[in-house]
Write a structure and sequence with these properties.
6-stranded parallel beta sheet; 472 residues; 16 helices; 21 strands; TIM Barrel; alpha/beta
């Protein structure tokens, strides 16, 4: 499955490792990101379930082998190795729904060089895209301030996988449903929808279109009222149909949808008309190229909207369409000894943090709010009973002594010697976990503009290793 979904250099390097006697050399790789989308204060981890499915089923088919043979640069011995390929790595990942921050390993892989290198592209595809969309969805849901957000972007998604897994990621980030029917089948995410303008236009008049729809779907009746004129015909015709069809059935709920025009103004006027007619429980749904900034402005302007349908600006993360996660070698292993590896760059942001690492999140016992994350070497333990000093790894004079705290390991092992050892929660459990964990992050860090920086610190031991390598 997806054996050839790699960058070509991963295959040429793999053969190089194979022919140079490095096939069994143990390596440690970290996947992390450098910048938070949209200049925000946090991101949301997503995509672990699909990453596990890929790793568990990774293989090279006979067709794959014959294609590679046709390139005439791969030897028969290496192609036979790929034919019998089996994933045997150890893998650790931060659980989906966790708020995450730059330069901390979201995924760590330990295994032989060939296996650990070959999964790079698919690992990045999976975690980068879903984390990007979950992060964007989380921002939009926060902007909606308690109102429901439905992901409406399937038709604008950049491919079938993006439509399906984008819906999943949006749900992780807090959306209540999706327009994508397949997402409900695959992940039990509620598939929701109203009607298109073509439904209204296909009838002789708007009233008849609404009437037929209400008769067909009386318990799920949301009418699109902006095909012709929202206030002069759309809302009055909707009320007429509610009175004639829903009221005799004892149904008091339903909705209208606004998909164009001045949403703030139209929703206020529509709400007054609906309330005056006694339809207080009819919800107003708004769509039309929305994002977190437009939603925030609409609510500031007094928009009476109960549900926001958000499409292309969510499913593509239009304002920041690349998550930017990278996959870097952090260490190798020789006779059981871990050898740190570092990439040095004139750009400080591209200097890697070496060694096999763990990540702790420190929480205050007083209010259970997150204090900072700390990267340590794999063999370090943070003692919660003792005072612990954290410091900025760039501006090292910035130090703080932490007491009365708990330390939580963020990563969990998902593969042990190529065998899955973690069962992914269902997507509703992941969504609730995300909500609970975000509540532990200070609001100052969750601001849309100029958020307070959340600190990712290095233990003294890890900092000494990194600094020692930089001095060489």
């Amino acid at each position: 499955m997806y054996g050839l979904l790699t960058d070509f250099y991963e295959l040429t390097m793999a053969q190089g490792f194979f022919l140079s006697g490095k096939a069994d050399k143990v390596a440690y790789f970290d996947m992390y990101f450098r910048d938070i989308p949209d200049g925000g204060g946090y991101a949301v981890m997503a995509g672990v379930e699909q990453l596990m499915e890929y790793m568990e089923n990774l293989k090279f088919t006979d067709d794959d082998i014959e294609y590679l043979r046709g390139k005439k640069i791969f030897c028969d011995e290496f192609l036979e190795y790929l034919r019998n390929f089996k994933f045997n790595c150890d893998v650790w990942a931060i659980p989906e729904g966790t708020p995450v921050f730059p330069n901390e390993p979201l995924v760590t892989v330990r295994g032989n060089l060939i296996e650990a290198q070959l999964i790079e592209t698919m690992l990045l595809i999976t975690i980068n895209y879903q984390s990007l969309i979950a992060t964007k969805a989380s921002r939009i849901v926060r902007a909606a301030n308690g109102r429901d957000v439905v992901e409406f972007g399937a038709r604008r998604a950049q491919g079938t996988s993006a439509a399906l897994h984008g819906a999943r990621a949006a749900f992780v980030g807090g959306a209540v449903g999706t327009s994508c029917t397949l997402a409900e089948k695959e992940f039990s995410i509620p598939a929701l929808g109203t009607m298109g303008h073509s439904w209204v236009q296909s009838f002789d008049n708007e009233y008849e279109a609404f009437l037929q729809f209400a008769k067909l779907y009386p318990t799920n009746c949301t009418l699109l009222v902006d095909t012709y004129n929202v206030l002069k015909s759309g809302v009055p015709n909707a009320i007429r149909v509610f009175d004639e069809v829903l009221k005799p059935l004892g149904i008091t709920t339903g909705g209208i949808r606004l998909d164009s025009g001045d949403i703030a103004y139209l929703s206020q006027k529509a709400r007054k008309i609906l309330d005056a007619a006694g339809w207080h429980d009819i919800k107003i749904v708004a769509s039309n190229s929305l994002d977190e900034y437009i939603i925030r402005d609409l609510l500031t302007q007094g928009a009476n909207v109960d549900v926001f349908g958000v499409g292309e600006r969510l499913i593509t993360s239009k304002s920041y369409p690349v998550f930017g996660g990278v996959y870097k070698l952090a260490a190798t292993e020789e006779n059981g000894e871990i050898i740190p590896k570092i990439k040095i760059s004139e750009n400080p942001a591209k200097i890697t943090t070496p060694y096999f690492k763990k990540i702790y999140r420190l929480f205050s016992k007083e209010d259970n709010m997150a204090i900072a994350d700390v990267l340590t070497t794999y063999d370090e333990e943070i003692d919660e009973t003792q005072e612990y000093e954290i410091f900025d790894p760039v501006h090292t004079w910035k130090r703080k002594k932490v007491t009365d705290f708990t330390a939580k390991l963020l990563q969990t092992q998902i593969f042990n010697e190529g065998k899955p050892c973690y069962k992914s929660p269902n997507v509703r459990e992941i969504q609730q976990y995300c909500k609970d964990e975000l509540a532990k992050i200070w609001n100052e860090t969750k601001r849309f503009e100029n958020p307070q920086e959340y600190y990712i610190d290095l233990s003294q031991k890890l900092w000494d290793i990194k600094y020692g390598m930089l001095k060489l």
